Amino acid sequence: MGGLLALDFSVIFCNGTYGDVMLAAAVDVKVLIVEDDPSTCDMMVRLMTRHGIASECATTVGEALLKLEQSNSPSALILDINLPDANGSLLIRRIRREDLPIKVAVVTGVSDPSIYEDLLQIPPDRLFQKPVNFAQLVKWVQE
Question: Would you put residue 9 in left (φ > 0), alpha (ψ -120 to 50) or beta?
């Protein structure tokens, strides 16, 4: 893992609240979290930050697509499948079609993910069941 730079500043979380956090920006790891629940998204960003992983949130597939177009590609994508504007598997399809160097983890509360036919055709790199074991999620991102 690259060197770390710690900065103390205020951030705006996905739900619009402000908070002072210690940001540890990893030089070579960036995660895009695609999650429509603001509190879950905020918690995941804080978790990644505590482990020196830069991350940002998108709450819809459309927002995630814009972020993929506008910024440096993340090294990992943590994805909820049931999103308000589209099925999250569209993001996996685009990443695979364009051969982007982004690993993808799907986080789902569905006990049988095989009901998502798209996930069988274009599987993610990793599947995490809710409730998520966050130690395993962070480890996967850092691999």
Answer: beta
